[in-house]
Amino acid sequence: MTVESTAARKPRRSAGTKRTAAKKSPGARPDLVQLLTPEGKRVKNGEYDAYVADITPEELRGLYRDMVLTRRFDAEATSLQRQGELGLWASLLGQEAAQIGSGRATREDDYVFPTYREHGVAWCRGVDPANLLGMFRGVNNGGWDPNSNNFHLYTIVIGSQTLHATGYAMGVAKDGADSAVIAYFGDGASSQGDVAESFTFSAVYNAPVVFFCQNNQWAISEPTERQTRVPLYQRAQGYGFPGVRVDGNDVLACLAVTKWALERARRGEGPTLVEAYTYRMGAHTTSDDPTKYRADEEREAWEAKDPIQRLRTYLEASNHADEGFFAELEAESEALGKRVREVVRAMPDPDRFAIFENAYADGHALVDEERAQFAAYQASFADEGEGIQR
Amino acid sequence: MTAEKMALAKAINESLRTALDADPKVLIMGEDVGKLGGVFRVTDGLQKDFGEDRVIDTPLAESGIVGTAIGLALRGYRPVVEIQFDGFVFPAYDQIVTQLAKMHARALGKIKLPVVIRIPYGGGIGAVEHHSESPEALFAHVAGLKVVSPSNAGDAYWMMQQAIHSDDPVIFFEPKRRYWDKSEVNREAIPSPLHKARVVREGTDLTLAAYGPMVKVCQEAAAAAQEEGKSLEVLDLRSMSPIDFDAVQASVEKTRRLVVVHEAPVFLGTGAEIAARITERSFYHLEAPVLRVGGYHAPYPPARLEDEYLPGLDRVLDAVDRSLAY
């Protein structure tokens, strides 16, 4: 097998020649697991078909619904940021298939460690979308109980959570449980030492963890070629576990490959790296301006591979969904948007004493002292206000 | 059972053994902690008795050690991790500061992070670079962490028990040059609270406040001063986060003079915080400004110069004289 490295694909530099990223269609590559082509055609895959062989039309419609509603939620959050209701938003636009496919592959007792863009995975885990908005609105720094849906807090520092996932998975193995753990991260995070260390630890301890890398091609303005000179999934080999590249815009393939990897983990066969080859269609966050660093044609090329349209074409061609389904979903989508708007606008500022809440589990004398000072300071305003009124 | 005399390193070993025995969720993790028993042999024999599943030799990666310990704590374990030397903690500093310290608050109190990070720290053993540092202020500055350091075996035994039982992350600084100093360990005593300072020598003329390796130096200084007719009180702070300011205040309002002694650089250090707080709390009781004796704003020097860098008897007594001269 020849290793097709990024370096090999790099065009030679010569004076006057503008350097462009040579991109092959991922669909044409033999190393990319795909079950639905960008044109919505179902293709066979000897290795992974088995994992979606028994999928029902209803389940397929369910995946479609998940993707549509997640995209709608995401669009609403983006709008709310523009309207000043959120301080920031990290959109998942374009990554719905990677997140819904992998998220739906998890079992209830599995544990998910997300980065900060996994709104679709959160959806699959049953996390109330409103909970995801608190930290972006600035009313908390996390805001949910990770154990209520086995969905850990969003992690802003890139790659840190891959180690938490690995440690958690080590604990799962110690407990003799047959659940698995999945850690999400991006192509940018693959450059972080913590990700490398999590690969080492998980391999050495044979931890039941799946590393799910959404390679969305850009780490803010840095392209994947600034993170790696070999395809990311190939890194796994150096650590001694399998790596697979899946078409990240193919929800069926993402479901199948993630199921395969999670089952390996459950059987005690250790970690797997899944690289979901996808594209971030929007900005990194609402603070970002991708027009400064990438070409419109690139986005247009990826729009042709849109994960939602792809499944819709398949559902229609195979008569798995009718107009009524799509119309009903459209109405449900509108209702979700409305609910998200209402929830965000009604979200109260936290109690001011929340500053001191939960700094420590067992308490801390300095926190107690400063809380008392803060209370006295606040109380002094109350007195003043009363004085003015009188 | 009566008290038995043992070295500080042995006391920590016994404490870890007690914790491993009492709670199957307690784990020991770190580089070389298994067969070797740690480079200072603090975990000696534990893997042999509790197995590789409880006393875990890790890959050589500090961020990985702390990061996976966080994950294990999330799963319900109580990991006690060893960082081999003070200067090696920095690859893990990100995990400690951005993750471990904040996760309980970010989860609105719904999850707990009972992780103990043991760090042999400080100088005085003639080590090479990165093996003699005192970074406690860097950790004490971070909300969400508790930072403690025992100065003797008896305290070390109990403080380790308390750190492991704490639902908060505790940075446990072990004074490596006191590892071989023996003192009494009473396993049936009722230990004083983890964050309570202790008067180790009563005095009336001036308070010396110290912790970890410097407590012994201060006790020696007080003994020397006694011969010159000066009565010094020595306070072992034991905890740098939180600091028992009430105890410092009580001592200072008795003696009216305070000198804080630590190995770490004086600039922006634990002593600076104590000086500021005590000035706020006890301004009218003070007969002299609070003075500090500690390390310089320079990289920890090569071993042949560490005696110049570390506070010794003479530097402490010099500060005592300066304070008494006001």
Automatic annotation (TrEMBL), chain A:
InterPro entries: Alpha-ketoacid_DH_E1_comp (IPR050771), DH_E1 (IPR001017), PdhA/BkdA (IPR017596), THDP-binding (IPR029061). Residues 1-30 are annotated as: Disordered. GO terms for molecular function: magnesium ion binding; oxidoreductase activity, acting on the aldehyde or oxo group of donors, disulfide as acceptor. Pfam families: E1_dh. Its cofactor is thiamine diphosphate. SUPFAM superfamilies: Thiamin diphosphate-binding fold (THDP-binding). Residues 9-22 have a biased composition (Basic residues). Residues 65-343 form the Dehydrogenase E1 component domain. GO terms for biological process: branched-chain amino acid catabolic process. Keywords: Oxidoreductase, Pyruvate, Thiamine pyrophosphate. This is Pyruvate dehydrogenase (Acetyl-transferring) E1 component subunit alpha. The gene is pdhA.
From TrEMBL, chain B:
Gene3D superfamilies: 3.40.50.920, 3.40.50.970. Residues 6-181 form the Transketolase-like pyrimidine-binding domain. Its cofactor is thiamine diphosphate. It comes from the Bacteria. GO terms for molecular function: magnesium ion binding; oxidoreductase activity. InterPro entries: THDP-binding, Transketo_C/PFOR_II, Transketolase-like_Pyr-bd, Transketolase_C. Transmembrane segments: none annotated. It holds the Pfam family Transketolase_C. It comes from Streptomyces liliiviolaceus. This is Alpha-ketoacid dehydrogenase subunit beta. Keywords: Oxidoreductase, Thiamine pyrophosphate.
